[in-house]
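Provenance and format

Records in this collection were gathered into a single text stream. Each protein contributes a sequence line and a token line. The two records reproduced below are adjacent in the stream.
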Amino acid sequence: MSRVLIRVLWLMLISGLSLQGCTPPKPVRLGTPIEGYSHTSAAINRFSVNRGGGPNISPYSGGGKQNCCASLPAKWHPGLTVVVEWEKDPDPHAYVNWPPLGTDGYRAAYKLHAAK
């Protein structure tokens, strides 16, 4: 009986060691959900954190909707930084003086405004 027990234990040990080779490596970076907020009177046309970003955010609003994903290191280290970028309309109320919506004049005004 002890020989059978030894063989079973030996088989379990070998099986356990062989399965350790199947363990996936720990990730170096993680995709982290982000959400944006606008604390200004202008809409934020887009934003990003480490080049992963989100959509338009209305003035004085945001949150409530997480966007995927910002790529961050799995482990914190001293000096860790992220790059946050955003684009906002420098004149969010310019459309008030534009020609009627759907006209060629409106499209031209929009194109000129978007170029700025």
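Adjacent record:
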Amino acid sequence: MNLNQLEAFLYVSFTGSFSKAGEILFISQPTVSARIKSLEQILGCSLFNRNDKYATLTKEGEIFLPYAKTMLEQMDEGIHSIQNRNLITEGEISISSVLIMADFILPKIISEFYKVFPKIKLTVHTGHTHNVLNMVLNYEVPLGITRSVNHPKIDSIHLFDDELVLVTYPSHPFYHKQHVSLQDVANEPLILFNRGSIDWTLINKAFHNLKIESNIVLETDNIKLVKQMIMKKMGIGILPRLSLEEELRADNLRIVNISDLPQLSRPYQIIFLKDTKIEGLLKFFVDFVSTQIKQMMK
């Protein structure tokens, strides 16, 4: 019995699919099948009920599952203990991140991380919040960086809160004002980010509660497009503050407060499965990201 056999068994049990387990482990489906078959021969029993679509655990598979988890966890603990003792900081880490973090925060953090840990290879997948959550739930990555999510299988580490702000361009009448009202905003062509998101829902609800009709001329899930269209004077927009650092520094855009709109903010967090142990290389990464973000937000 070896580590490869146990990994194949666990990932087939988690995903219900030999092919999906192969994708996660970067091996072919026949290789997964061969590893499961050899494990079954060692144990003297079938571990899965197989059909065209799904693989489900047999009674023997259900009995063996917690022991297989324990064996792998103990193996990982042994590896991490040696790494921590000898300060071995090399290996690979795969994460998934929402696009806004990947576009505006992670480049700085990854650059600094590589300076400190040049022998750790990072693989970063990007997508929307539901994509990040699904990759973590499906054991495709151990860590996700996303806006807040609530799921019974997920634990999280808070990173920071980012607020939504009204943004305008230099020649717009709002540019030199400190405050405007929501009615003032409604009278202007408005560009919104990510229809259907919680951000969009919060903004739309604010207009609805005050019985104000907004003049939305463009909605998109691409922040860079929103900023470009604002700078091209198509309208004003509401965007996450963290996406605006470069344009604010260059005075290409300016934030204007909305006096009768409560602060709209969303927390960002690192998410992981509740049975994932944050130790070894994962702990190096989580601690580094948390420290870097605290310094950036000062």
